[in-house]
Amino acid sequence: MKDKPDLVNRLIFLFKKLFQVVICEQVVFMSRRYNQNQSPLLRIVYSQTKVNGKVELVPLELYADGSVKRVS
């Protein structure tokens, strides 16, 4: 199970590269939140989007299985 943190870091790196995501400095490790696949919430990430010429940051929840969900 030593490789699991490595895998998570690789997923985060790929996610950042693909979607130009800015990782929030606040990391949520003590969370008891899970997605539909029972994967724990790792951290909140922000995706950059342009709306009417302005850059906005959209908060997303990043789960251990690599899935993301928009924060409601």
Secondary-structure map:
Elements (H helix, E strand, L loop, with lengths): L2 H17 L1 E7 L13 E11 L2 E10 L4 E3 L2
Antiparallel strand pairs: 1-2, 2-3, 3-4
Overview of the structural elements:
By secondary structure, the protein is an alpha+beta fold. It is 24% helix and 43% strand. It has one helix and four strands; from the N terminus they run αββββ. The chain has a four-stranded antiparallel β-sheet with strand order 1-2-3-4, covered by helices on one side. A hairpin with a 4-residue loop joins strand 3 and strand 4 (68-70). The N and C termini lie far apart (32 Å). Residues 24-31 have low confidence and may be disordered.
Provide keyphrases for this structure.
72 residues, alpha+beta, four-stranded antiparallel sheet, 1 helix, 4 strands, 24% helix
Q: Averaging pLDDT over every residue, what do you get?
A: 77
Radius of gyration computed on alpha carbons: 13 Å
Helix-strand makeup class: alpha+beta
In the predicted model, the low-confidence regions spanning at least 5 consecutive residues are: 24-31
What is the makeup of the main sheet?
Answer: 4 strands, antiparallel
- Placed side by side, the strands forming the largest sheet appear as 1-2-3-4
The N- to C-terminal Cα distance equals 32 Å
Series of H and E elements: HEEEE
Percentage of residues in strands: 35-45%
SS summary, helix count = 1
